Amino acid sequence: MLEAFFSALLVLVCVGVLAFTGLAVKKLYQGQR
What we know:
mainly alpha
């Protein structure tokens, strides 16, 4: 049970980081042009 919880948390963190990075890159790219 605990392992599944930690796995879900890890996936959630990874998705959050990916989304944040994507947004940051998008803003950076738009600001450059």
